[in-house]
Structures are given as structure tokens and as C-alpha cells.
């Protein structure tokens, strides 16, 4: 995830500006938990939840084509976590760096925290070109958090992985920048809710200026027009903790400023990703409409039509957001106004 777009959204609801609608996308856009990378040739790659992890591509970020799966022959090494053969692999997170795709993804089943996060790498992004990087981390019933929804964070030579869904919230682990695997068993808490049964997940971190912004999804997704999913944010000068919302409430104490929720027939925005492009940071998220029922998730549930969307805001919105969130130099305290 990256921020331009998000920034504009943060200022819009509190300054009377209209909330931007999702940009128009076409082709094969039905996806869940989308993440987008752009390679050195300028081609866009979208990865999303599915058995084997679905791959779509685009040359213009608008028209999308389904091209196959990361694991076209299945991923048997994940079966112990999905509880089935060739089960859904959840919430991939893509980073493209130094000519290589790094995709972290989760294997689990609904309502349990017996979960594993795995790594796949490729130099082309094409189906069948991927190398299994193995198990990165896992949780079991003896843990108080859930190892799903991975997000890679790169701060110079330091690599981190944010994980977590419900339970005790969002955690972070240190990774090796060469292998992409964990280097320590230490787990750091980044965000947590006690309200709404602890409904927080889908961490995505982005640096803008001197601050790191931690975006999360709150409440319940995938319930059609009853979905309460929404996107929240806090920020810190460090990627490893200290995140607060606009009111100064720590994200570890339930803080989180609203970025985007249901509006204008758009239901359940969340499960977000952000990536940098030539026109600025782009917010990517799935959302549902009130019509067009489609079945997915291997028949586990029926969901209204879900469309992945990406759109962009201008620098004026970013400047407005940061100006309002910056420190009040007159009294040396956080202004925290949007």
C-alpha cells in the first residue's frame, strides 16, 4: 500500500470534500484481498486469494486479464493449515524489488488461528515461474494472535513482516533481507482492539515524509450490504511501533482514524493494499455491491459481486492531510486535526 490516495480520503470526510469513488476498471476484476506490483517493464501484476493464488495482469492499470496461478499444480505444503487439499491461499502481499517478486501469503481456515504464512518468489511473475520460499511463520492454539494477512515492510536494509487478524491484533516480526525468512522469534505488537471482539486485520504500512502510516481493516467483511468493513490509519516515526491516530490514541489501545467506509453504494471497503506508481501512491481494495451474486471461496459462502478498485488523489490532498496532522509548533503538541 502507499498513501497518496489514502491521504486524500482521510481529509475528505472531515473537510466536506466528497469521498472519491473507485476508479473504473474492466476485464477480469473479480478478486478478493488484492495486492498489486509493477515490474521494471511497466506491467502491473495483481495477486489475490484463491486456491494456488490467482494472477491477473494489466498494461494500463485499468484493463485486467486473468493469466493463471502462482501454484497451478496446488501447494500441498499448505494443506496442514487449510485443512484440505489445494485449499484457498489467503491475502497475498506482493513487493517487487531488484527485479524480483516477493509474495507472502497465508494458509488457514475460518475461525481458527492454526495458520501459516509462506513465501513465493519469481523474476517474471508468470504462472509456474515461482519458487517456494517455504514457511515463514505460523501460529497455533497456543498463540494469542493469528498468523494471516502478511505485509512486508522494508526500511533500508531492515525487513519486517506485519501479520494478524482478530485475536490480539497486528504483530510484527524481523526478517532477513536475503532470504525473506524470520531471523528472530520476537513478536512486537503494532495495533489491537478490544471492542467489536477485536475485529482488526489486514495491516499495510507505508512511509510518507518522516512518518510511517499503518493502515488496517476494522469490523466484518464479505456480508454484502451488511458488511461493516472499513479502513483505519495511524502513524509513527518508526516502522516498529508507537503508532497513534489523529487524536493521539495509541493503535495498541484501540486507536485508528477512519479512512474509508461504506458510501454511495460501495459496501465493505477493506483488505487494502497500496503501491507507488508514476502518478502517486495508489489504494487498492475490494468492495461489494448490492447486486450480482457470485460464488467463490470454493463454495464456502456466497458473496455479492466484489470488484477490485484502484484510484489516485493529487498532491494537494496529501499536503492538506500532512499539514493538518503535523505537530503544532506553537505549543509543541500534536495538532491531530484533519
Summarize the structure.
This protein is mainly β. The chain has helices at 4-15, 79-82, 315-325; strands at 26-27, 35-38, 44-48, 50-51, 54-58, 63-69, 88-97, 100-107, 115-122, 131-139, 151-155, 158-163, 170-175, 188-191, 200-208, 211-218, 230-236, 257-260, 273-277, 280-288, 294-296, 301-303, 306-311, 327-328, 333-334.
Q: What does it look like?
A:
Helix content is 8%, strand content 41%. It contains three helices and 25 strands. It has helices spanning 4-15, 79-82, 315-325, and strands at residues 26-27, 35-38, 44-48, 50-51, 54-58, 63-69, 88-97, 100-107, 115-122, 131-139, 151-155, 158-163, 170-175, 188-191, 200-208, 211-218, 230-236, 257-260, 273-277, 280-288, 294-296, 301-303, 306-311, 327-328, 333-334. A five-stranded mixed beta sheet has the order 1-6-5-3-2, with no helix packed on it. Strand 7 (88-97) and strand 8 form a beta hairpin. Helix 1 (4-15) packs across helix 3. The longest helix is centred in the N-terminal third of the chain and has 12 residues, at 4-15.
The biggest beta sheet is recorded as: 5 strands, mixed
Instruction: Give me the oligomer status.
Output: single chain
Rg computed from alpha carbons, rounded to a whole number of angstroms: 19 Å
The proportion of residues forming helix, as a percent range, comes to under 10%
CA distance, first residue to last residue: 21 Å
**How many DSSP E strands?**
25
Report the mean per-residue pLDDT as an integer.
82
Bin the strand percentage.
35-45%
Order of helices and strands: HEEEEEEHEEEEEEEEEEEEEEEEEHEE
Shape: globular
Structural class: mainly beta
Amino acid at each position: 500500500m502507499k498513501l497518496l490516495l489514502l491521504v486524500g480520503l482521510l481529509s475528505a470526510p472531515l473537510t466536506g470534500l466528497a469521498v472519491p469513488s473507485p476508479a473504473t476498471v474492466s476485464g477480469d476484476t473479480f478478486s478478493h484481498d488484492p495486492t498489486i506490483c509493477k515490474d521494471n517493464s511497466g506491467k502491473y501484476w495483481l495477486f489475490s486469494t484463491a486456491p494456488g493464488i490467482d494472477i491477473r495482469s494489466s498494461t494500463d492499470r485499468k484493463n485486467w486479464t486473468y493469466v493463471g496461478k502462482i501454484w497451478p499444480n496446488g501447494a500441498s505444503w499448505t494443506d496442514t493449515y487449510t485443512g484440505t487439499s489445494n485449499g484457498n491461499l489467503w491475502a497475498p502481499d506482493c513487493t517487487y524489488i531488484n527485479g524480483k517478486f516477493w509474495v507472502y501469503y497465508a494458509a488457514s481456515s475460518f475461525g481458527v488461528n492454526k495458520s501459516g504464512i509462506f513465501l513465493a518468489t519469481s523474476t517474471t511473475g508468470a504462472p509456474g515461474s515461482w519458487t517456494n520460499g517455504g514457511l515463514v511463520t505460523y501460529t497455533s492454539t497456543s498463540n494469542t494472535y493469528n498468523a494471516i494477512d502478511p505485509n512486508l515492510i522494508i526500511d533500508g536494509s531492515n525487513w519486517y513482516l506485519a501479520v494478524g487478524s482478530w485475536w490480539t491484533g497486528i504483530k510484527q516480526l524481523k526478517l532477513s533481507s536475503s532470504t525473506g525468512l524470520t531471523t528472530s522469534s520476537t513478536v512486537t505488537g503494532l495495533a489491537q482492539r478490544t471492542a467489536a471482539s477485536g475485529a482488526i486485520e489486514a495491516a499495510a504500512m507505508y512511509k510518507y515524509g518522516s512518518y510511517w502510516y499503518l493502515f488496517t481493516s476494522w469490523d466484518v467483511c464479505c456480508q454484502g450490504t451488511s458488511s461493516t468493513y472499513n479502513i483505519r490509519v495511524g502513524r509513527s516515526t518508526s516502522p516498529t511501533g508507537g503508532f497513534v491516530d489523529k487524536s493521539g490514541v495509541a493503535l495498541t489501545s484501540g486507536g485508528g482514524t477512519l479512512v474509508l467506509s461504506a458510501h454511495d453504494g460501495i459496501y465493505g471497503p477493506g483488505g487494502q493494499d497500496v503501491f507507488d506508481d508514476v502518478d502517486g501512491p495508489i489504494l487498492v481494495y475490494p468492495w461489494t455491491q448490492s447486486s450480482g451474486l457470485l460464488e467463490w471461496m470454493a463454495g464456502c459462502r456466497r458473496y455479492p459481486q466484489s470488484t477490485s478498485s484502484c484510484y489516485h488523489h493529487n498532491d494537494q490532498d496529501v499536503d492538506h492531510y500532512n499539514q493538518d496532522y503535523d505537530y503544532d509548533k506553537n505549543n509543541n503538541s500534536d495538532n491531530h486535526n484533519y
